Amino acid sequence: MISRDVVFDEFSSGVCGNVGNTLDTDEDVVSLDMENNNNPSDNAPSSETVELGWEEWLALPALGLPAIKAKIDTGARTSALSATHIEPFGSAAHPKIRFTVHPIPGNYELAIPCSAPLKDRRAVTSSNGEAELRYVIETTLNVGGQSWPIEVTLTDRDGMAYHMLLGRMALVDRCVVVPGESHQQPELSYDLYAQKPAKPGQTRALRIALLTARPASSAARTIRAEAEARGHTLEAFDPATLTPHVSPTAPATLQNGTPLPRFDAVLARMQANRHNLAVLRQVEALGSYAPNSAEAMAAAADPLRARQILTRHHIPIEEPDPTQDEPGFTATTIGKRVRSPQHKLTKPERATVLRAARAIGLGFAALTLRHVNNQLIVQNISASPEVTPLKKRKSTAAMLFDLVEKRARPKPQKRR
Q1: 219 located within any domain
Q2: Other CB atoms closer than 10 Å to residue 397's CB: what's the count?
């Protein structure tokens, strides 16, 4: 069953947004909400009155949108946000939606990937009589120093002067609209998108692929548990069952002839053979962030290639020698972090581990090292480190997802 929400958008609302002249009928709204059919603003705590003009600068911080210009349209019951590449994902129990927002009308270079829990799906009819089935999310609105939850429908408003409409259900009792004025609240700037996000920032839900032939292994289970604990969706695939589809117009990664969806990130715990690396390379080419790229995994799996790379960076390396009496130690690097459960690392040792991993191109690696004649030697590099917890420290799985969340997020736009 699909809910029906009759909405009149800016085609009929005019410049003032039909303030005081709502044409849609609340009595005709029937919603099958995935959680409940209450307007989130109904339960929002009351605060001082916010005066709004017919257009205002707003922020949707949970979506990574620090500034967006919206039209205040009381002729529309539900708020609308312009979105493209709309794609549902996640489990049936916890559905999510991801999409792309171009917050600046006419500027398609700035694209903000967003995701949110999926709340509902409703049929929305505009004033011209066209009905559209839209996804509905709940997010936090920030305007005039105040914040409260609102419902927003997702639709492609390409070509519209405003990429967001703020409907009357989002205004609740705290807002007073002055139809003859604009920007009654402090104005924001699109320059905010050129700034580095503040820490800690809002982490969006990610869709992550895990390439492994052993999805039931301890490492795979640990990675899945960490992903789900953070609200991400992780899907495991045996790379042997996948096929790269190379095409100038419709590239894809196929499973039994069916294209896989696009992933925000891909984690690879697999043998670095020719086919598996080709699959990983294809997933990367489609826009997925990989802590360990196909090229880096290929270099790590080839002793001669690894030796050539490290030697070029003046990092000594040797093959493991079982006849050596002096024991070595293992260190794991995740991004800029280095951990060793069996050895207290010195500053030079940490520096060598990071240099070696970066030279190969690995963001997540385990290195075996040994001191020989007062010189630190790299014996082995693995692109599939253990992900078991470390005592009294953050687990390697947690640090791995810290890295994925940081790198998979959109980079701020550079000023021109």
Answers
A1: no
A2: 21
Find the CATH number of the domain harbouring 147: 2.40.70.10
Are 363 and 293 within 8 A, CB to CB?
A: no
Domain-located, residue 62: yes
Assess if residue 115 is contained within a domain: yes
Cα distance between residue 261 and residue 247, in whole Å: 16
Taking each continuous run of H as one helix and of E as one strand, the counts in the chain are 7, 22
Geometric angle at alpha carbon 203, from 202 and 208, rounded to 5°: 170
Beta strands in 194-259 (DSSP E): 207-212, 233-237, 242-245, 252-255, 258-259
- Taking the C-alpha atoms of residue 191 and residue 196, their distance in angstroms, rounded to an integer, is 11
Tens-of-pLDDT digits for all 416 residues of the chain? 344 444 434 433 333 333 333 333 333 343 444 544 555 655 444 557 889 999 999 999 999 999 999 999 988 888 999 999 999 988 888 899 999 999 999 888 899 999 999 999 998 877 677 788 999 999 999 998 899 999 999 999 888 889 999 998 998 777 899 988 999 999 999 999 887 554 444 568 899 999 999 999 999 999 999 999 999 999 999 999 999 999 988 899 999 999 999 899 999 999 999 999 999 999 999 989 999 999 999 999 999 999 999 999 999 887 656 566 566 899 999 999 999 887 899 999 999 999 999 999 999 999 999 888 888 899 899 999 988 765 556 789 999 999 999 888 655 444 44
CA pair distance 319, 336, nearest whole angstrom:
26
Query: Are 43 and 63 in contact, with CB atoms under 8 Å apart?
Result: no
Nearest CA to 116 out of 73, 81, 78 is that of: 81
pTM value is 0.72
Q: What is the distance between the alpha carbons of residues 258 and 260, in angstroms, rounded to a whole number?
A: 6
Indicate whether 208 belongs to any domain.
no
Using an 8 Å Cβ cutoff, are 269 and 218 in contact? no
Q: At what angle do helices 274-285 and 294-301 cross, to 10 degrees?
A: 160
Overall number of domains in the chain: 1
Q: Residues 26, 30, 33, 39: what is their CA dihedral angle, to the nearest 10 degrees?
A: 10
Segments forming the whole domain that contains residue 102: 3-194
